[in-house]
Design brief:
Blueprint: E1 10-16, E2 20-23, E3 26-28, H1 35-46, E4 51-57, E5 68-72, H2 75-83, E6 91-94, E7 101-103, E8 122-124, H3 128-133, E9 140-147, H4 151-161, E10 166-171, E11 183-184, E12 186-190, E13 193-197, E14 201-202, H5 203-222
Parallel strand pairs: 1-4, 1-6, 4-5, 6-9, 9-10
Antiparallel strand pairs: 2-3, 7-8, 10-12, 11-14, 12-13
Helix pairs in contact: 1-5
The protein binds cytidine-5'-monophosphate.
């Protein structure tokens, strides 16, 4: 069915932004609303997916009807939620803004004000997309790249390093793109380079174009 190119497929989508605890009342976070992830989950349903799971990190965006939502807070929790469900899914779309760093020590009590400055030591979080790409997973993997320039170079580098099938890059400095907006401007990269440069459109429409392209490539792989 041309209108249901994801028929029979199980899709795992991550969205929102992770929070990395500092103490019981504080965290390091980012501005991701989860709108792009929710739009992808909705588009997957619309394109006929058999099952859609949305792993949401602190996302204010609503869950599209029929989609299973799993709540996580941190990068570590997202890693566990994703890896535990990987083999039950045919495609993973990593639209979440995952923190790159987290506090090395999590204080069990609220940090008290000091006279002087306070040093917070940070350590790297696990790279979930990289972990998926190097896990031997045979499904289709789509990553995102929020850039502030030179998207092509960074996107291709990400695609190769993290071993993805597609990377959707958006310049977050462009008007009508990025965090919190209802529209996005996506450039889609595959192993061969730029595959599609989409003009500004609703996140819903951009999600549909991205997943339609992914479905075509999945079908070509299977053939
Ligand atoms: O390297 P960068 O953070 O720009 O890559 C963005 C892509 O990698 C997104 O798809 C994001 O969800 C994913 N990512 C991840 N785990 C991290 C950092 C990024 O899965 N710790």
């Amino acid at each position: 069915d041309l209108h249901k190119p994801l028929a029979g497929k199980r899709i795992l989508v991550t969205g929102g932004g992770t929070r990395e605890r500092i103490d019981p009342v504080r965290y390091l976070g980012n501005d991701s609303s989860g709108k792009m992830g929710a739009a992808i989950a909705a588009a997957a349903q619309e394109l006929g997916a058999q099952k859609v799971t949305f792993i949401a990190a602190n996302a204010t965006a609503a869950t599209p009807p029929g989609v299973e939502r799993i709540e996580v807070e941190s990068a570590e929790q997202m890693l566990e939620a994703v890896m535990g469900r990987l083999s039950a899914n045919d495609m993973v779309v990593k639209a979440a803004a995952v923190a790159d760093y987290r506090p090395k020590h999590v204080f069990s009590r609220k940090i008290k004000k000091q006279e002087d400055s306070l040093m917070l030591e940070l350590e790297r979080t696990p790279d979930i997309l990289h972990t998926i790409g190097h896990s031997g997973y045979s499904g289709f993997v789509i990553g995102f790249a929020a850039e502030t320039g030179e998207a092509a170079e960074y996107a291709m580098d990400k695609l190769r390093r993290k071993n993805c099938d597609l990377i959707a890059a958006n310049n977050v400095l462009l008007e009508g793109a990025g965090f919190g907006t209802d529209t996005n401007v996506l450039e889609i990269y595959g192993p061969e380079g730029l595959v599609a440069a989409l003009p500004a459109m609703s996140k819903q429409e951009a999600a549909k174009r991205l997943l339609t392209l992914a479905a075509e490539r999945m079908a070509a792989h299977a053939a």
